[in-house]
Specification:
- Helices cover 11% and strands 36% of the residues.
- The protein is built from 2 helices and 11 strands, in the order H-E-E-E-H-E-E-E-E-E-E-E-E.
- Strands 4-11-9-6 form a 4-stranded antiparallel beta sheet, with no helix packed on it.
- The relative contact order is 0.19.
- About 3% of the residues have low confidence.
Length: 148
């Protein structure tokens, strides 16, 4: 199986749909791990996969932050990658808070596996919140911005 963005998206959907807890695939020197219910793709070169240490459990000493209720249409990341608000560092952002958008307008880019994936709006409205900083890593299904 070739590990491209479409195949990885399909695998992520299957993991979520079938409520699997973990799926590992290795192909062409690349290892992909998808974990549920919070689906996550971790790319590790196959040679380093066996040597990778297990992640430490989070400390229970700090209280969990309260989640703010979000009002409006939440646009989520369709894939794991890096969020970019503009097509290039010297270019202006696609949208900012207060921008009026129409269905189909590009909102932002998610870079994944060296591919720049433009994410279009699926509704008309006004951008009221941007929840992610530029060049920040994002996870599949993570809220990115809000449109009202």
């Amino acid at each position: 199986m070739e590990l491209n963005v479409d195949n990885i998206k399909s695998l992520m959907d299957r993991v979520a749909k079938n409520k699997l807890t973990r799926l590992e695939i290795e192909s062409e020197g690349m290892k992909v791990v998808i974990e549920g219910p919070k689906t996550e793709v971790i790319q590790v070169p196959a040679a380093q996969a066996a040597a990778a240490p297990a992640a430490a459990a989070p400390s229970s000493a700090a209280p969990a932050p309260e989640k703010e209720e979000i009002k409006g249409h939440v646009v989520k990341s369709p894939i794991v990658g890096t969020f970019y608000h503009s097509p290039a560092p010297e270019k202006p952002p696609y949208v900012s808070v207060g921008s009026k958008v129409k269905k189909g307008d590009t909102l932002f880019i998610i870079e994944s596996m060296k591919l720049m994936n433009e994410v279009p709006s699926d509704v008309d409205g006004i951008v009221t919140q941007i929840l992610v900083d530029n060049a920040q890593p994002v996870e599949y299904g993570q809220p990115i911005l809000v449109i009202e």
